[in-house]
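Q: what sequence does this backbone want?
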């Protein structure tokens, strides 16, 4: 066993022991290594001892699947995220909430469907969920602040099922699970299922939790899976271009959109946020973990992929699944394993290689330019024009430009600083670029004032006295 794998196992064993988790299953997926999986404990299922194929409830990680289904439908033109729910579902109340607000938990829907579902363990079917929306509260105004809502994601799941003309379960299998080969991820309880427990706080006793089928609330928390399937799913959320290079499930640009922060979960700490259906956990130095936590009676799950940072091989995803509903260490372990993966086993450093020069039309753009008293560097790397502040940290991504069709002197900023804005090139009679305008701000080869005069040509000082 290599040193990194030994370390991964040790931290997993410690969480299982310290957290008193009956069964723990962990997995790492990365682009440059074979997948790694490890289990410790007992499944509680005598017919199917604990192993990599043991299934666990993943709870609210299910929401990430529903979010992807919503974004697929949006990309196909079936829905508009900024239209209200009532445009697609016949709801008796709260139909003004937009799909975008529901995905980011900022629509103000109460947390659960009407009724004490976690007391009775009875949830409404799909039709009743929608029909009883008028019995649920709008606990906050639309867009006021973050408020987590299982009800909101359940409504979205039923909405996307309706526009697809099937059930949520059918749509999920056809559009996500089968294309990505997530064969161990199911809606129904599999025979390899671990038993979920509530572990007594004051002894080593543990009580099996009752099974619950979520019916109409299934799009929020129903799924079962393995750690290996979930590590691959986390890798997809972080690096879709590696897991789904043809974009059969979702375009990489759409997942970029899902990962953009729309709200923080705490107004003072800013330690986590939500995009479109995804939890975002900043790790510092331009690294973010993207995914979701999950909980169901007797189960906890953490499923995250890592984006950015030194040593990241790409498609780096981790899943930690446990059969205890009260061991918070499970949700911390997923982040620790992602950190250890790049610290103990960083990606190989790729050698720099000579590449073709920039196209002739853009060679006079390269180099240093000034705007608003700040110096920028324009360069050509990886077949594209880039720009960054001259003193920007090395880990800050550059702005990237792409020319408009049939207009090589007008380029769109496709990522980084000023995304969406135009860069316009002005040439002299010889064809050299002598001036540029980016987001309408003037760029010249020398530092100038807003009146166009060079900064070096200030007035002579007035003699004293």
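A:
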């Amino acid at each position: 066993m290599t040193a990194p794998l030994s370390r991964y196992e040790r931290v997993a064993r410690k969480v299982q022991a310290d957290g008193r988790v009956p069964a723990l299953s962990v997995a790492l997926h990365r682009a440059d290594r074979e997948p790694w999986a490890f289990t410790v404990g007992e499944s509680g299922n005598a017919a199917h001892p604990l192993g990599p194929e043991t299934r666990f409830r993943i709870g609210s990680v299910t929401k990430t699947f529903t979010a992807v289904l919503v974004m697929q439908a949006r990309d196909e033109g079936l829905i508009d995220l900024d239209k209200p729910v009532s445009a697609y579902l016949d709801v008796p109340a709260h139909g003004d909430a937009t799909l975008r607000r529901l995905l980011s938990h900022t629509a103000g829907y109460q947390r659960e469907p009407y009724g004490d579902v976690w007391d009775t363990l009875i949830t409404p079917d799909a039709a009743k969920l929608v029909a009883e929306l008028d019995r649920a509260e709008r606990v906050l105004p639309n867009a006021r602040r973050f408020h987590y809502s299982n009800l909101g994601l359940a409504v979205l799941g039923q909405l996307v099922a309706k526009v697809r003309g099937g059930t949520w379960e059918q749509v999920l299998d056809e559009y996500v699970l089968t294309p990505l080969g997530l064969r161990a991820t199911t809606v129904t309880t599999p025979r390899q299922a671990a038993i979920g427990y509530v572990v007594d706080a004051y002894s080593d006793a543990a009580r099996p939790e009752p099974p619950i089928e979520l019916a109409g609330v299934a799009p929020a928390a129903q799924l079962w899976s393995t750690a290996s399937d979930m590590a691959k799913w986390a890798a997809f959320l972080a690096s879709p271009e590696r897991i789904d290079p043809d974009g059969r499930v979702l375009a990489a640009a759409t997942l970029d959109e899902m990962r953009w922060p729309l709200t923080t979960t705490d107004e003072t700490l800013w330690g986590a946020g939500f995009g479109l259906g995804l939890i975002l956990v900043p790790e510092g130095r331009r690294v973010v973990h993207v995914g979701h936590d999950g909980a169901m009676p007797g189960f906890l799950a953490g499923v995250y992929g890592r984006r950015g940072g030194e040593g990241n091989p790409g498609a780096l995803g981790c899943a930690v699944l446990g059969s205890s509903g009260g061991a918070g260490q499970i949700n911390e372990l997923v982040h620790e394993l992602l950190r250890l993966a790049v610290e103990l086993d960083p990606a190989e450093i790729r050698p720099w290689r000579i590449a073709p020069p920039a196209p002739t039309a853009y060679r006079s753009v390269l180099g240093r330019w000034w705007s608003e008293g700040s110096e920028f560097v324009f360069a050509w790397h990886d077949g594209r024009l880039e720009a960054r502040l001259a003193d920007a940290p090395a880990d800050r991504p550059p702005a990237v430009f792409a020319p408009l069709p049939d207009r090589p002197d007008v380029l769109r900023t496709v990522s980084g600083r000023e995304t969406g804005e135009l860069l316009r090139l002005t040439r002299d009679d010889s064809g050299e670029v002598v001036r540029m305008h980016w987001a309408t701000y003037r760029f010249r080869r020398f530092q100038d004032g807003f009146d166009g005069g060079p900064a070096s040509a200030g007035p002579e000082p007035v003699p004293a006295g």
